[in-house]
Amino acid sequence: MCAPSSPSASSSSSIHDLHAPTCFVPQSAPIFARAHESGDATVATGDVHRVLTTLGACAGTGELRAIARRMWGRWVSTALNATHDASSSLRANQRTIRAVCSSNVVCMTKDESVHATPIDVKGAERRARERAEMLRDKQTAAAVQAMMIFDRELIKARRDRAAFLQREALQTRRTAPDGLLDELARRLLDRLLDIKRDFKRVVVLGGASEAITRRLLAERNDVETIVVVDLSADMLNFVKSVVGEAPKRRDGASVEVLYVQGDEENLPLKEESVDAVISCLGLHWVNDLPGAMSQAARALVPDGLFLSSIFGGNTLQELRMACALAESEREGGVSCRVSPLAHVRDAGNLLGRANLRLPAVDVDSVVVGYDSPMELVEHLRKMAETNAGLSRRPFLSRHTALAASALYSDMFPASAAQASSTDANARSGVEATYEILYMTGWRAHDSQQAPKSRGSATVSLADLQKHLGNGADASTKAT
What we know:
- The protein is α/β, with parallel strands linked by helices.
- It is 44% helix and 15% strand.
- It has a single domain (95-442), classed as Rossmann fold, CATH 3.40.50.150.
- The radius of gyration is 25 Å and the shape is globular.
């Protein structure tokens, strides 16, 4: 999702695309400046959290990077020690299992036993070792790297930042940290209401994990175990802070919620261990999407449900057009500002490749109004939908960004119903379109309906067409 920069950003600020802009950090720069000028090695806890979140989430400006390099060894480690006591109680009670993410180290808390849960840490470790062994061959490693689209470490950092921003938003918006994510989670889970069966063990896979987990607890009486899998430990901590230490479902019964830091491309789940896998906006950032969906399908019990939503190819079409026109005018060419997104036909093929039966794909479109293109950019950051493509440009110049913002405001003004202005007749702000693809599939089971074997038909389609045609002719004559 491409994005114009804020006018207050420095000229070297990075602005990126769908899955858009790299961030600039006006709040964090003064913190570095104060530490740099005074030589003080201690900073307020809130400042440290903001600085570290920003450093992990984006590259920042060149000046900021230079100051950070000089000051890093001097005061950041001291600041981390200062915040250790404040967070020690949370870490002591944290029930997070860090499963393998590519070559990451597995770390499991002492009080957590995985023998009776769907979690398979050893299996994820084994797959990571096999992958590392395979990538020792330089030719194979080069071939694999050529097929990579997204920077998974950067995606993890962006989700860390989104967790911090959503935690701050929750202080003012008590019902949900993000209205769009909450609405899309509601629409996805609404499909479960049409299924007359229980889902006792559910996996929530990345994306809008907070909204999905919160709504599962608030709306269903059948859930007994929820496994939340996310690439970001900060996001898992945020979800845990929302649902609480002793989560309960709608009827008051206790629910076991397990938090697993793992990669969608290497799911730490046992085969045939869960009743449903639900992913709301969590799979369009995966490099090997067919492989990730196949792993999710293997984790399902026979006749288990796979339910997912991803952004479709028409998402943020307004922003793409504005950025393309601005770049063409100011820089004499157009660069890739939008990550590859699936279309309806792609979604159907993905379900088939994952060996999921009874596939169903439907499309939804949501138009959201914003006060300005800059507000849209900030919203993308809060949703962790900023650009993480390996081929992304490092930055967008201020002039091009301002031109894109002006073009966007001129070409796509928000309608009166969508404008956030209190005056219903005012045409202020802009609008953005999000296309959502919903995918539903089932693990194979003998009880599912299946087509008859080839050659077993007793009536030919030609005879049926002739019969229907004669009936239509007779009714025409009668009239």
